[in-house]
Amino acid sequence: MIPEPPPRQTLSYLRNLFEAHGIQPKSKLGQNFLIDLNLLDILVQTAELTPRDLVLEIGSGTGSLTARLADQAGRVLGVELDPSFVELLREEVGHRENVRILHADVLKNKNEIDPRVLTALDELRRESGCEGVKLVANLPYAVAVPVIGNFLISSLPFERMVVTVQWEIAERLLAGPGSKEYGALAVLVQSVTEVSLIRKLPAAVFWPRPQVASAIVMIQPDAEKRARVGDVPRFRRFLRDLYTHRRKNLRGALVGLPNGRQDRTEVDRKLMQLGIDSTVRAEMLDGEQHLRLCEMFG
Ligand code: SAM
């Protein structure tokens, strides 16, 4: 059976759909829907999907993006937390043979993906023979950062992430040393991937209209970079600890690390060995310097 073409997710389409189902969008779940059809297409095109891809979509909402993904990918796993949308999704895309909808919170907690999501991805990969996994989603803003971080440290063979995030998060992903947005997130992500800005999105392309702009970003894992980092979860923990007190200089931040306190002279001696000035702040250092710090202090 040939599935129907994806619905045209316009403002009037959404209003009618929600009225018919008695649904009110909930802002605390980040329910802002893309109503610019070109942008939905850009998300899908940027993912460069093939029938050998398994796509993970987090927050499938009304299923408009899900249907577009299913047209091009081998399999799609749509994860949705809100039961009203799960019901809607089963009506809208449930008949597509290559789509599975999972009613779950994608996160078990801030540091862990819900194991049901990982199990479903494993099952779908095995039964379909799909090789790579791609995350393509208009991410709910409250979970965007932990979702990206937790999937990056997972052992899943991610080939690409194409996601919409709030503009402020895009800035934190793309920032370079010395800027105020640069911190643990930029260092971690840029140390294991290539991040690129695909498009800045004005608030008006979503309904209901959010307070802030957003962006489509693409994150491509880089095997060589990852091999250089080695133990990625350890590096992530170290970066979190290092940036807990952003305003301290490097010596202060390292002396106060929670994993066993080190005295100042010891810290200064090790920093001198690395050729790093102990009075600068961590946010002035590049990725390689952070890695060397982690090897010494992590
Ligand atoms: N994919 C749709 C689109 O592009 O128009 C909707 C995206 S909307 C920004 C985010 C969706 O994520 C909502 O449907 C919301 O209910 C869902 N959501 C929010 N928090 C979630 C979580 N922790 N786990 C899974 N889904 C979540």
Would you write up a description of this structure?
This protein is 43% helix and 20% strand. The strands form three sheets. Strands 4-3-2-7-8-11-9 form a seven-stranded mixed beta sheet, with helices on both faces. A two-stranded antiparallel sheet has the order 1-10. The chain has 298 residues and is of the alpha/beta class. It contains 13 helices and eleven strands. It folds into two domains: 11-227, 3-Layer(aba) Sandwich (Rossmann fold), CATH 3.40.50.150; 232-297, rRNA adenine dimethylase, C-terminal domain (Helicase, Ruva Protein, domain 3, Orthogonal Bundle), CATH 1.10.8.100. It starts with 10 loop residues before the first helix and ends with a helix. It is elongated, with a radius of gyration of 21 Å. The structure holds S-adenosylmethionine (SAM). S-adenosylmethionine binds at residues 29-34, 58-62, 64-65, 79-82, 85, 105-107, 138, 140, 143. Residues 29-34, 58-62, 64-65, 79-82, 85, 105-107, 138, 140, 143 line the site of S-adenosylmethionine (SAM).
